[in-house]
Amino acid sequence: MTATIQRQGRYTLFETPNKNRILSLGNDLWFAWIGGQQGELLVRSDSDHQRERIIRAGEYFLVHFENDPSFTDVPHLFLGHDGVFTEVILPNGLPTDDDTQKRVVGTEKTIEGGLLRQQLGVDSLELPSRGPGERELPIPDYDELSVRGAKVRLDSLNEDELRRIRLHESENKKRKTIIHEIDRRLR
What we know:
Elements: E1 2-15, E2 21-25, E3 29-36, E4 39-44, E5 53-66, E6 75-81, E7 84-89, E8 101-112, H1 113-120, H2 147-154, H3 159-171, H4 176-186
Antiparallel strand pairs: 1-2, 1-5, 2-3, 3-4, 4-8, 5-6, 6-7, 7-8
Helix pairs in contact: 2-4, 3-4
């Protein structure tokens, strides 16, 4: 019986002003979570979504089990919240660029965080730490914001903070619209 962690990190499940549910896994995977005729689907998306409200956020694990009597032999997504992880079964894995939508099976099953970590053989979330000289960005959860959401938050920043966001943006997501907006404010 083996459990292979395919991905782990931080997730955010939020709702847009149009009441669409968006799931972000880390800063690089985005999915619309929609109800379909034959159940729920995850549909590959991008980071350009405005947040109306956060439904849940926390730690996640994407795990593939083999020969484990407690879990089926398909990928499972565990979404943590308040010390407990909710299980979501992904019969065909996560959507990809080539196969943009996949069925998900939400279960009522939850597992206590310590028990899940013990089963997976991890102590805690192992995220990269900030290096020396790296500072917290002046906009909390900046990398999770859509272009529209980020532009609105730029109004409250001073020149130094705008420069820090511009540097971060140019080294990471490289969204031209935001870089242009920052440059316009710095003129």
